[in-house]
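Step 1: inspect the first sequence and its tokens.
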Amino acid sequence: MKAIAFALLIIALAIEPTRAQQHFAQWSDTALVLNNGIVTRTIKLPSSTGNFLTTLYKPANGDFKYFQKTNTDFQFEVSGVVYSGRSNWKLIKINVISDAKSGDGASVTLQSADNKIQVSVNFLLYPSSPAIRKSITVKNLTNDLFKLESPDIEKFEVEKYSASTFSWVCHDYGRRRTIGPYESNLQDALITVHNSDWQQGIVIGNEAAGVVKRTSVFWEELTICTGLTHKDARYPFRKWIKPGESFETPQVFTMVYNNHKDPDEILNTDVADFVRKYMGVRLFELKQKPTFVYNTWEPFYTNINEKLVMDVAKAAADAGMKEFIIDDGWETNFGDWEIDKKKFPNGLKPVFDYIRSLGMKPGLWISIGSASPGSKVFKTHPEWFVLDEHGSYTNLHTAGSGIRTACFGTGWYHYIKDILLKLSVDYGLEYMKLDFTVVTSPYRYDHTQSGCYALNHSGHKDHNESLFTNYEKVWQLFDELHAAKANLFLDCTFETMGGLQLIDYALVKHAEGDWLSNYGMPNELTDLRIRNMAWWRSPAIPATALVIGNPEMQDSGWQMHIKSIAGALPIMLGDPRKLTGTDLAKCRAWADWLQLMQNKYDIMSFRQDVNGFGEPMEGMWDGYQRINTDTKAGGIIGIFKHGATENERQVTILNLLPEKMYTVRKAVSGGAVVVATGAQLATTGFKVSIPEHYGGELFEISSE
């Protein structure tokens, strides 16, 4: 009878998957079914005791060939003992769970046969999305401290031949393809496994931070796993759990799909939609997103003072900048973060007030985890700072520098929080650029030069645990800053993230942006690198979170800089005082146009690939489009020629309403190029001519 009842449950879910306020999780005594009408997954439950196994996972419609009939589902080690879905479990309870982003699902609590741990396996599904988001919570039922290691939050066994032999593993933000066994690195927030013969695959998104995230595909065995780094990794995850306490892992998400010829199709559609609508990305919480940012770093570096900053601010405002960021050089030292009164005799508040009077939002650079050896804070609280493996104070950022790196598992957390709160709340900052290493460095290649080896810091028991907990404390700090000032834009640099040009889902859930680079060439070489970086990390990562420096305003090709950077977060450096009055007016026109496009279409929330245009590179054409896929009202498109031999390309535009009429207009001037339906623009499109060897054009697509 149970089998018949369960079969009827499956049929009911398939017939009526979208009824109002329906829960996406249903269960019987023997199985949990997750179904939102887009994707379905069945998990075998222990009837009294037994296994917890995924027995079916596929798109709701059509077939799916990747997985075996039984899948391990999860696996981890506790003090050297392996527990997994194939272990013997007692079912304790099942609860409906939800989140603030329309997520709905179930949490299944299991108890191990040895009665040492409880595990809650947490699943969330979302309306009209193929994503299944998952975490596991481990509770210590013993009287002893134990260590959690090597957690695979998802573990699937794949079909034995075609899945591993004929699949592309699309790693590095889903943009680079390889075949055969693959183990991820810090850049793999998202991996797609795609079989072009089957035209189906699986997206694996990992929301863990930096160097402690791990995804493996066919690695050592025919499985697909995602979670946290294993105990034998270069940067191993470890969490010590006290008796009676619990630890919940970061979330991961997976999407199974079929009927897609190319894996980039899923990136540009379902992945981008899930990240924008349901992940909880900070950028999308902002009421006003930045559209044109100025930063003082180049060419001034630390050689700044009150008069220079005010003079540059006036020119930047004339050029149409909306945010003005004062970079390094305002402080007396790292750590105390006192204002250098020789450079700023009246303090920074009058400077910030002046920036606001010009119609710009003020911002400031600070290193959140660094102190000079001569600073008062280091002399007073040396116990707050990272120790290396030999027990000495160290600078995790670069070797040979006198800076000391602070440990967030100490009183430093509250100390730096108070400083940042004062700057943001009392001084009215709207933007903070937060810099330098806190866990690992992009510039140190010895993995032992990472984390904190102190054994007396309250935030971690040992070095391995510090790798995870210091990231988590930084995210907690960001969340508390946002609680105090909701619209604060936090730019957490790749140096703070701990890897070259590193950005991931952990960051974008807690900070709005990531300073990704310092490109300094004055010509088309910078433009290519900007567009390449933006293409490379989007659409897996929201484009406006990509803060790509350092195009300069006084460069002869500054207009191409703007056109290129408009595909990410528009940011400029340089000296705007060097622009002629005519060029200042032109720059202002670009700034006003970008703001208008944001006001009309919210372009900073969207970015897609242009159909038929690939990775930006020498000798090719490339492009991006930022169409509002929610309203379909329009957006912008950028088309670039970078040394290609042909001077003309046919351009098509996707993501528009087929029957609606649209006008394609040239950027800034507004001259009409073509009037056509969305269907015509998707199939026939329009021609773009660029006679220059290196050049580009931006267009507005409007339904008005």
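Step 2: inspect the second sequence and its tokens, then contrast the two.
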Amino acid sequence: MQMQWKILSPDPNQVQEIQNCLQCHPITAKVLANRKLGATDQIHTYLNPKLGALPDPASLAGMQTAVARIVRAIQGKEKILIFGDYDADGITATAVLNHFLRVAGARTTCHLPHRVEEGYGLRPMHITHLAVRQGIGLIITVDNGSGSHDAIHAAAKFGIDVIVTDHHNIVHQLPGAHAVLNPKRAAQPSDLTDLAGVGVAFYLTIALRTTLREMGWWRQNPEPNLKAYCDFVAIGTVADMVSLKGINRVLVLSGLDQINRHPRPGITALLRAAGMDRNAVTAEDIAYRLSPRINAAGRMAHAKVALDLLCAQSIAAAEPLAHDLNVLNQRRQQLEAELFHHIVAFLDARADTSNRKSLLVAGANWHEGVLGIVATKLVERYRKPVLVLSGKDCMAKGSGRSVPHIDLYDTLNRCAHLLETFGGHSSAAGLSLRLENIDPLRHAFEAAVQQAQCETEAASELLIDSELNLDQIDARLIDDLERLSPFGTDNPAPIFMARNVRVTSAAMVGHRHRKMTLCQPHQQARPIDAMLFNLSPDTPRPDAFDRIAFRLKWHHYRSSKQIQMVVEAF
């Protein structure tokens, strides 16, 4: 899909006010004005976030009830089961809560379900075959549980309390748990709505630590420094593609600081396995280097491998696990590439692909572990909501991904009469349905997406923060721009445009990336290094560009860094 380029034009008076107040680069002031962050004092707070300014955990409904029940379990030495999920958000949420409760003296055990054999979420079989047999008195779900009505009812029959901590949209009504912590509940503070599953679990630890402190508990147990847990929070938050504004921005920045200053053994081993400079990890590194390896465990084998890595107490224990994740990730990449190219060939051969507002593709026995990431890549290619389904026996399971202006959960909710189960949030979801409902779903999903587009009236636009000549790019600008990070969902990296750019040298890196040196013949600036990532075979490779859209970053290599342009469109 061709995108329209739109150069933003902020109020020049506001730009000048921001520049004068913050003493920042004039281009940075323009970018900040484009972000519509409010008055200069609000922009200053945005650029200098602090953990101490987080909203009170007590504002999350159900928190006091949950804390009181957990404290009672700790004091009574009850067995607590932490029931997580097999993705990076669920794995890190499990690690956060388990680590904290262990430090507090609780008796805990963890369970992450197998993606294929058990599926997503707490189920009745987990009560009878796991909790009852292990003598569990309390179950705490993380990153799941909002739809586990049957399992929670089964637990009650055996006298087992369940506390749900989750962030997924709630279907119909709350489960009958002892407490439900979910920022998607009705009448929750708006600044908590975008927490990931690991963010909700972290908020629970904040509230627990405070209550235990008031009880004098930490006189007999060392009080944990919760900033040390923010590395897990950052990984899970970035990996789950939730908004990186507000609270999540604070949590991710704190986590990145923790990773770069005091990485725990498991993260150090994973950084080494990924060939990364551990002192300059960014949110982009988490999204494209760390989280795929953590997710590979649940996609290709069992998520427990990743949990064991994150919780490893030494480099010696962590390195073999990091190696295993690397191998699993390589296998995942191979399967993903094969399926992606197969689907692209199918879609590009269809006459109606470009005219449709959505895409639904289905096949027999496609590997369930790669459906979500293939859906993500299809969205990047076609810029429209995508469902990828794999059929087996009489059922199909699948994953969906969406574009920013289309709420995937809402569109699936409009198709709920055709689905057996579904869940997720605005940008990502999982679903299951009977095979005979695949074609009806294709039509219903297309209609729902068309309706959503009419309601949002969103155009496919590439927003340009400013036009730049290459001689305006310098170290001060890059330093300023990086203060706006972490970049990701709802906080995209600034995009710039340059005209009449010539390629002075170019070489392929791997099979899909093009490394270039660019210049503007009419400018005196030295050439700048640039990367064009994820080229498809039909992407043109010109020696000059009439115009390019790009973002700017520091490229870190070992102990040095240099300015790098990343070309987004041309």
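Step 3: confirm your contrast with the notes below.
The longest helix spans residues 315-348. The chain has a mean pLDDT of 92.
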